[in-house]
Amino acid sequence: MSSFKISVRQFGVHAILVEWPNRVEESILDEILQFIQYLKKNHLDEKEWEFIPAYNSLTLICKDTVLDFDYLKPKIKEWYAVKGKIEPATRYLWRLPVSYDLEFGLDLEEISGELGMSVERIIELHSQSIYTVYGIGFLPGFMYLGGVPEVLEVPRKSTPRPKVLKGSVGLAGKQTGIYPQDSPGGWNIIGKSPVPMFDVKKENPCFVKVGDKIQFYPISMAEYQLHKIEGEVGIYNLEKKVLDA
C-alpha cells in the first residue's frame, strides 16, 4: 500500500499523466520509480511504452496507439493501490569533475557578494553536497538536481544569457545542473564540467537517470583541459558507485 494519493489525467491521445502530491521529496520520487518497475514487470511492455518520471509526476506514453483513457484511468489507480513494495532499479552515485575557475564561473563573484560568502566557501559547499536527479529535460541530458544547501539558494538571473556554453554548471533556487550543450539559459554559472552529458552516437545517450545521485568535485584548469580531451575521444572514465537500495 502507498502513503500517497495520485491523480490520473489524459495528456493527449497517446499519453497519461500520473501525479503525486506537489512536493519535492525523495520518498515521492522513490514511490514513482518503484511504480515504474511494477508497471514494466506486470502490465505495460516497455517495448511499447515510454516512462518519464520527474519530481512528483510520471508520464506514460504509447506512441503507436490511441489510448482508451476511460479504461486505463481506473486500471492505473488499481495497479498503484496493489503494487506493494517493489525492488527499485539499480541507481548510482556519479562523481563529476568541475572547474570553478573564474573564467568558467561567470557569476561566482556576483553570488559571493549577494550571499556574503567567499567564493571558496561557495565552491566548498557546492562540491560537498550530494544531489538527487529529480528530472531530465529542457535539453537532452539536462539534469534537474535537488539538494542545494539552503545557504546557496539564489534566484535565476533576471535577464537570461542568449548563450550558455556546454558543460556550464548552474545554480537556480533549490536546483543545480549542467548544461549539456550550448543553449540560452538563466541560471547562475559557477563552473564548468568537461564530462559530456549527452552523446547521441551512444546506445544510451545519457548515462544518468532519474533517481541517481550526483556529487561534484573541484579540479584545476589543467585537469579540466585533460578531461575535456578524454571526453571528446571517448576515453574518460566516469566515477560511479552503486547506491544501496
From TrEMBL:
It comes from Arenibacter echinorum. Residues 6-208 form the Carboxyltransferase domain. The keyword Nucleotide-binding applies. The keyword Nucleotide-binding applies. One of its GO terms (molecular function) is hydrolase activity. This is KipI family sensor histidine kinase inhibitor. SMART domains: AHS1. PANTHER family: 5-OXOPROLINASE SUBUNIT B. Keywords: ATP-binding, Hydrolase, Nucleotide-binding.
